[in-house]
Design a protein that fits this description.
CATH topology of the largest domain: Chloramphenicol Acetyltransferase
Strand content: 15-25%
Number of strands: 17
Number of domains: 3
Largest sheet: 7 strands, mixed
Radius of gyration: 26 Å
Order of helices and strands: EEEEEEEEHHHHEHHEEEEHEEEEH
Length: 439
């Protein structure tokens, strides 16, 4: 029986993804779990797997098309099976999108009329006939107040993409700025709800680009990071609590465990131990494993710790699911697999979904201390520096010990200084008595 393969969701805030490569074609037989396509979002490039054994009956989108989350991208079924898109709940217009040919040129030009402003629905409803735009371009047009029917497309078959909208808005803004000063807001105007803040929306910053300067186009991932971090600092009142941890016992335990696990091919990292300690501490302080939701605070039912991974052109968080329940060996094995996939640009959807708290560890870069920005909508993130040998005072005697600084960034809408201090103290207790991580 034919089944639809849909655009997967890579994270709670993903709205669409771009199909960058088909690895199969109509008529190809595939096994369950076989890689059939590569999808790119603002976060990462992932491989899409076939969820069942069968034959690829039809591809519904073209390479480079942006597709909303949950929208169909292909049909899989039995060899030779007839495909009834209507019975599968697929809009025929959507299926035609991938196969339509260039329209025949008009025989006679019509007088050009100023297009009316249209509303841009999630699937392009309301766009004038002949106007093709990616979902991302439509959303950006809505945010910037651009009439998308006036934008010229540079994508395949004249399709309008995000950069076309941004270029149009920039040109229109310069023209408007020359013509008139911006009007002051009316005192009667109603207050607007907070929306994601684009770095381009921040006023008062002018960059003078000289002849010797090199202007480099940012990647989608970098633009997404810029947007999310700007939004986080704008909507979440951050505060910070720092502690210093004696890492001697944790490092000794790691050495002992790795010697025991060597034959199994498992190697526990310092970060694995930190993630485990954080997860157990979050059990005791659920407000740090939560999200602000207006009149309520949502306390998550699972403890899923995000692990920041440096990737090409940016940063990506893979997620250790139910980290409080996993053994250190299990955490180490799964974390290594996810981190490797992230660095190779081949994460799985489940690798980056469901984060409830995060750890950002710059210890490998010889960093003493830093603070991190919270990943919205989470209530906190722990920034970890290097474990270093330093002079310390123990029982009135100066000796050498391993010390590491850790700083929690917390959302003041959800928690307060005393609770955040107790949380980092609990993390410190667990790392200084690491046998408690094994119980």
């Amino acid at each position: 029986m034919a089944e639809v393969i849909n655009m997967p969701k890579l994270g709670f805030d993903m709205k669409e993804g771009q199909l960058i490569n088909w690895l199969v074609g109509p008529g190809d037989a595939v096994e369950k779990g076989a890689i059939i396509a590569e999808i790119e979002s603002d976060k990462a490039t992932i491989e899409v797997e076939a969820f069942q054994e069968g034959t690829i009956l039809q591809l519904l989108v073209d390479v480079d098309d942006w597709v909303p989350v949950g929208a169909p991208i292909a049909v899989i079924g039995s060899e030779g099976e007839e495909v009834d898109l209507a019975a599968l709940g697929v809009d025929g217009a959507q299926a035609d999108e991938a196969t339509q040919e260039e329209p025949e040129p008009a025989q006679a030009a019509e007088p050009v009329k100023e297009p009316e402003k249209v509303s841009h629905g999630e699937n392009g409803a309301g766009l004038p006939d002949g106007v093709r735009a990616s979902p991302l371009a439509r959303r950006v047009a809505d945010e910037l107040g651009v009439d998308i029917s006036r934008v010229s497309g540079s994508g395949p078959k004249g399709r309008i993409v995000r950069s076309d909208v941004e270029s149009f808005a920039e040109a229109a803004g310069e023209e408007t700025h020359r013509d008139a000063a911006p009007a002051a807001p009316s005192p009667e105007a109603p207050a607007q709800s907070i929306r994601p803040v684009s770095p381009q929306q921040i006023q008062g910053v002018t960059i003078n680009i000289g002849p010797d300067d090199n202007e480099i186009e940012t990647s989608r991932l970098r633009r997404r990071i810029a947007e999310r971090m700007t939004t986080s600092k704008a909507v979440a009142p951050h505060f910070y609590v720092t502690t210093e941890i004696d890492m001697g016992p944790a490092l000794a335990l790691r050495k002992d465990l790795n010697a025991r696990l060597e034959e199994q091919g498992v190697k526990i990292s310092v970060n694995d131990i930190i993630v485990k300690a954080v997860a157990l501490a979050l059990r005791d302080y659920p407000n740090l494993n939560a999200a602000y939701n207006g009149d309520t605070v949502v306390r998550y039912g699972h403890i899923n710790v995000g692990i920041a991974v440096a990737v090409e052109n940016g940063l990506l968080n893979v997620v250790a699911k139910d980290a409080d329940l996993a053994t250190l060996g299990e955490l180490a094995r799964k974390n290594k697999e996810m981190i490797t996939r992230a660095r190779d640009g081949k994460v799985h959807p489940q690798d980056i979904d469901g984060e409830t708290f995060a750890v950002s560890n710059l210890g490998a870069y010889d960093v003493d201390h830093f603070i991190a920005i919270i990943n919205q909508p989470n209530a906190g993130i722990l920034a970890v520096g290097s474990a270093k040998q330093v002079p310390v005072v123990v029982d009135g005697e100066i000796t050498i010990g391993w010390r590491m600084k850790a700083t929690v960034s917390a959302d003041h809408r959800v928690t307060d200084g005393a609770e955040a201090a107790e949380f980092v103290r609990r993390v410190k207790e667990l790392l200084e008595d690491p046998m408690s991580l094994l119980i």
